[in-house]
Structures are given as C-alpha cells and as structure tokens.
Amino acid sequence: MKKAMFILSTVLMLGFLSSCSTEELTVKKNWVFTVTTVTTMTPDDMGVGAQTVVTTVEQNGLTEAEANAVVKQMTTTQTVTSGGITMTTTITVTKAEKK
C-alpha cells in the first residue's frame, strides 16, 4: 500500500511538473517538494493504524507561481468506503526553495 501511494504521488507530481509553462519572465528557482501521504482505515479495530509515507522531490527551474500551482494541484484527500470499511488517503505537499 505504501509503495502504491508513493508511486501514484510521484507519477502525478512529475506529470504535472512536466506540463508547466516555461514562458513566464519571472525568476526561476530550484525547489524541494515534500509529499506526505497518510492513509487511515476505519473502523480502527482492524489493527492497521495510520500509514504515513514521506517523499521529497526536487524540481529545478520553476517560478514561485509554478511551485505554488504544484502544491495546490497535488494536495488532496480521497475517501473510499466498501463493505463497512472506510479508507481515507490524504496527500499534502509543501515546498521549500532549494539552497
């Protein structure tokens, strides 16, 4: 489950980053994105607990607006319910300028 969420997060982020426009005339910077994926299942008596995966992805040559768009696009929460079991996956993305 952790590997699937990591792969999904990485593929989605890289796909979005590759489609960003480079025609802006503002300053391009290098960024480090931290992707945190938390998966929880209820009822909690299943003994699984919350699963957390933290990944970092570096992307060079993005404007601040493009970096903000990545954060906005990738931050999401999805909930699936089946057979009385609910699985919630929350993906949170933060950015920091690479020094």
Features:
four-stranded antiparallel β-sheet, 4 strands, 2 helices, 99 residues
List the helices and strands and how they pair.
Elements lengths: L1 H17 L10 E14 L8 E12 L1 H11 L1 E7 L2 E13 L2
Helix pairs in contact: 1-2
Short description:
With 99 residues, this protein is α+β, with helices and mostly antiparallel strands.
Please tell me about this protein's structure.
It is a single chain. The protein is an alpha+beta fold and 99 residues long. The protein has one domain (2-97). The protein is built from two helices and four strands. It has helices at 2-18, 64-74; strands spanning 29-42, 51-62, 76-82, 85-97. It has a four-stranded antiparallel beta sheet with strand order 2-1-4-3. Strand 3 (76-82) and strand 4 form a beta hairpin.
